[in-house]
Amino acid sequence: VQLQASGGGLVQAGGSLRLSCAASGSRLSVFTMAWYRQAPGKQRELIASISRLGNTDYTDSVKDRFTISRDKARKTFFLHMNSLKPEDTAVYYCNTKPAGITWGQGTQVTVSS
Predict the structure, then answer these.
(1) CA-based Rg of the chain, rounded to a whole angstrom?
(2) Does residue 35 register a pLDDT over 90?
(3) How many other CB atoms are there within 10 angstroms of residue 90's CB atom?
(4) Is residue 63 very low, low, confident or very high in pLDDT (cuts 50, 70, 90)?
(5) 40: cis peptide before it, omega within 30°?
(6) What is the 3-state secondary structure (H, E, C) of 24-51?
(7) Is the pLDDT of residue 29 over 80?
(8) Contact 106, 5 (CB under 8 A)
(9) What are the phi and psi torsion angles at 43 (to 5°)?
(10) Residues 6+ apart with CB under 8 A from 56
């Protein structure tokens, strides 16, 4: 299985972005999927996850601003990010939870103040 995150970019504070994660080689429906991010000089952190049953979980710093979802075919899942803040600037990655797939390149999100 390979995962490819996309959809990042430069946005002003308060703006929105939607990240996508596409899988090749396998359906993701049996896994809990997650978004992670790594800010400059910091460790990669888990920020959102969605179980195979659709149960979601978020770290406090993104709760009520970010929404994780997956499509019906479950080959793609998303991270809808609203009310972005400069501290959300990071490289965003998708993976299973716990992370069990080789990390991809991620997608850069930069939030300007």
Answers:
(1) 13
(2) yes
(3) 22
(4) very high
(5) no
(6) ECCCCCCCCEEEEEECCCCCCEEEEEEC
(7) no
(8) yes
(9) -80, 155
(10) 48, 49, 50, 67, 68
